[in-house]
Amino acid sequence: MLATFAEGLRGDFVRAGLASLGRIGIGFAAALALGTTLGVLLVAHRFFEWFLGPLVLGVQCLPSICWLPVAILWFGLSERAILFVVLMGSVGSIAIATRDGLRQIPSTYLRVAGTFGARPWQRLAWVMAPAALPAFVTGLKQGWSFAWRSLLAGELLYRVAGMGGLLTEARDLADYPRLFAVMLAIVGISVLVDRLAFQRLERAVRVRWGLQAA
Amino acid sequence: MSHPLTAEPAAAPPPQGTHVPAPPAKVRLRGVTKTYARGHSAERFAAVQDVELEIREGEFLALVGPSGCGKSTLLNLIAGFETPDEGEVLVEGTPVAGAGPDRLVIFQEHGLFPWLTVLQNVEFGMKVRGVPKAERRERALQQLKLVHLTRFQSHYPFQLSGGMKQRAAIARALAVEPQMLLMDEPFAALDPSTRDILHAELQSLWMKTRKTVVFVTHSVEEAVRLADRVVVMASQPGRIRRTIEIGLPHPRQFLDPALAELRASILAELQDELTKIMKREGDDDWHLEEGALRRRPGGRVDHSMGDGI
User: Fold this and answer.
1) Which residues of chain A lie closer than 8 angstroms to B124, CB-CB?
2) B37: domain CATH number?
3) Where residue B19 falls among pLDDT bands split at 50, 70, 90?
4) Could you report the predicted ipTM of this complex, rounded to two decimals?
5) Which chain B residue has the Cα nearest residue A212?
6) What CATH number corresponds to the domain at position A117?
7) FRET pair for B88, CA 20 to 30 Å: which of A75, A143, B22, B33?
8) Does residue A77 fall inside a structural domain?
9) Distance (Å) from the C-alpha of residue B112 to the closest C-alpha of chain A?
10) Is A213 part of a structural domain of the chain?
């Protein structure tokens, strides 16, 4: 299995991994845009909290594979179906991270904005957004791990280029060493992205915000 | 309307019988009452009740009193963070509608933004008001010079000591040239020697700028050292107990015996307020004796509650 793993690293694992990362990049970007917007709305007005709050929580609680049947009916066996599953799998946790980040802003910051006469957009852009950033970044990390899980579920839908595709292929051939080698590679990619991207980002923000020693 | 026997002190003629009309009040609180819900019950308590107060232009006024006397509530009402349930708060004759940069608040927790450098923090208020970048920078640097923080302009707040943070917050406030500074226990979290330095700095800043200052503190010592006029408040319900003019010239020194005398007389007057606090916050074996807070023989005085008023 390790031999298969090593061989895979020289060729098709890399290609498949990049294909998967490209896909999750698109899906996660969409989840980020939608989730952040939803999170802001949840804090912005009581109506949205009442109306969208339970919805977001529901989406967040639902395992992402539950979206597979709907995705197939709506989008067929297509790239869009996979992206939809990624979006639904991670949007809830990003919305909740945004909401919680905004909610835990120390009231002194808001009062400072008030006493300087900041207009609503200035308060949002220059005070609330940066004040919520550390909590938001921590939430992103969780959102990404949800997105990654959803992606792999989605990639098992049909034969695609990507890590899921490699799994399907190995299953069809009943090639156990390869199956486990692919699984190892999947773990490797998640650890790598978490360490290289999210932990660094989180740390940089926390150090800059004075929440953690450099 | 105003019955002669119940005329408020505010309506009294100016001192020395001069015929020069008193300058119009910068801030006027008329019959101000603010209530809050007690916990989750429907019962409400008055944080301040029926408060009458006038603050003169250019005056340094201290609001002092025990915890729960409503001094911070009064400040928040003037700042526009709160609205009165009864009565009105007028600034230059106009009722206060919300917070604004003409009445700049300085908070106990300084409120510097941790993601901005000291210089960027001082620029914040000017940025909000649309001051062009070059002018903003220049004015911010001037303010930093006034509070002796030029050397630390590129530092982030977490790299500063408590006293430096508070000086940066003062620079940020003064940079927008407010008409009034509202200071809410700004030095309460600092150690005594830092506080002493900041008292000296604040006095010199005030003597240069002559801004109207409302300074909330629980320290009688701080109030008599800094203020032209000390408003002593009482609790349950929060109200003004007495107003004392401090006629001593600025800058005043920490060890000025005249201040010690004033402080002692105010504290003596507030004995029953201390008793109230003790009954609310202390054990039954606390009791008051000759102006000092002690425990019964054998007990240990673990902190000076008398200082905390």
Assistant:
1) 112, 116, 126
2) 3.40.50.300
3) low
4) 0.80
5) B158
6) 1.10.3720.10
7) B22
8) yes
9) 8
10) no
Residue B234 in any domain: the answer is yes
Assess whether pLDDT exceeds 80 at residue B276: no
Answer yes or no: is pLDDT of B240 > 50: yes
Q: Do A108 and B111 touch (CB under 8 A)?
A: yes
Q: Which two tokens stand for residue B139?
A: 């004015």
Burial B150-185 (b: 16+ CB within 10 A, else e): eebbeebbeebeebbbbbbbbbbbbbbbbebbbbbb
Q: How far apart are CA B306 and CA B210, in angstroms?
A: 31
Q: Which domain holds residue A67?
A: 2-208
Q: What is the pLDDT of residues B117-176, one digit of tens each?
A: 999 999 999 999 999 999 999 999 999 998 999 999 999 999 999 999 999 999 999 999
Residue B154 belongs to a domain: yes
Residue A214 lies inside a defined structural domain of this protein: no
ω into residue B251 within 30 of 0, thus cis? yes
Q: Which of the residues B91, B117, B123, B158 would you substitute to probe the A interface, choosing the one with the greatest number of A C-beta atoms within 10 Å? A: B158
User: What is the extent of the structural domain holding B197?
Assistant: 23-256
Count the domains in chain A: 1
| Helix/strand/coil for B51 | strand
Single-letter residue type at B161 = S
Number of domains in chain B: 1
Domain assignment of residue B267, yes or no? no
Is there a domain that residue A170 lies in?
yes
pLDDT digits (tens, 9 = 90+) for A98-139: 999 999 999 999 999 999 999 999 999 999 999 999 999 988
Q: What is the pLDDT of residues A51-82, one digit of tens each?
A: 888 989 898 889 988 999 999 999 998 899 99
Strand, coil or helix: A179? helix
